[in-house]
Design goal:
CATH superfamily: Transposase IS200-like
CATH class: Alpha Beta
Number of strands: 6
Oligomer: single chain
CATH architecture: 2-Layer Sandwich
Distance between the termini: 24 Å
Number of helices: 9
Shape: globular
Order of helices and strands: EHHHEEHEHEEHHHH
Structural class: alpha+beta
Length: about 240
């Protein structure tokens, strides 16, 4: 019998919560470089690729072979600009969460297979290991209502943030929040307007909240604890820490 959420229902213009974790719950991000590489792959897949410019560079007879080979690989690299819209993310030491929208019905599978395979190859090469990195194929939950969409984004962001305290030791290089801090790489700062990332699309979720009334803001929504256990039931079979 297939694992829950491993059999996927793909819909055109569908919203999905995608996640995966390390085999035997092992850590899949061991240092800041690992987080950076995973995020750089997301960026390369989600920003537009200028194929004409790459072809011109490849055709330059004076270009060194190493540079030409780099541009050829960039030209061949998968690109999902205009097909995948990333709404929110969090990277935890042994798993990750992505909340996204796809424009066609078969894009997510290509995107996730490419992303997970590419990162596994990087990780195994860096740490001189063999074998699979993930516990299983990635899991996908179809978002079926606006309520589920909003609470999924809240759940994903709460994975990576916590109240600031003098004893806290946040991951250096991530933007500190007002009274809170990002303990892990996450898109929460984009939702607070503290960071702008061109390949991330928070506006669709933020449109449900007020920019003028702090009590009705997205920040307030994420920080409140009411009915959190009930809301958690919407997050079907989330990745375990």
């Amino acid at each position: 019998m297939a694992a829950k959420n491993s059999v996927k229902q793909y819909l055109e213009s569908g919203y999905y919560h995608l996640y995966n974790r390390g085999v035997e719950k092992r850590e899949i991000f061991l240092d800041k470089q690992d987080y950076f590489v995973f995020l750089s792959y997301l960026k390369q897949y989600l920003i537009p690729k200028n194929e004409l410019e790459l072809l011109q560079k490849i055709g330059d007879k004076n270009l060194p072979y190493v540079q030409k080979d780099k541009y050829i690989k960039m030209l061949k690299l998968n690109n999902f600009y205009g097909e995948i819209y990333l709404l929110a993310f969090t990277l935890m030491p042994n798993h990750f969460h992505l909340l996204l929208k796809q424009s066609s019905s078969n894009t997510i599978d290509k995107f996730m297979n490419s992303l997970c395979t590419r990162y596994s190859m990087y990780f195994n090469k860096k740490y001189k290991r063999v074998g699979r990195l993930y516990q299983d194929v990635y899991k996908a939950v179809l978002v079926e209502s606006n309520e589920q969409l909003l609470h999924l984004s809240r759940y994903i962001h709460r994975q990576a943030i916590s109240p600031q305290s003098p004893q806290a030791d946040p991951l250096q290089g991530w933007h500190p929040l007002q009274g809170w801090q990002e303990m892990q790489p996450t898109s929460f700062s984009e939702y607070l307007g503290l960071r702008n990332t061109p390949w991330l699309f928070p506006d669709e979720i933020l449109s449900f909240f007020s920019k003028e009334n702090s009590q009705l803001s997205y920040e307030s929504f994420v920080k409140q604890n009411d009915e959190f256990e009930r809301i958690n039931k919407l997050m079907i079979e989330v990745a375990e820490e």
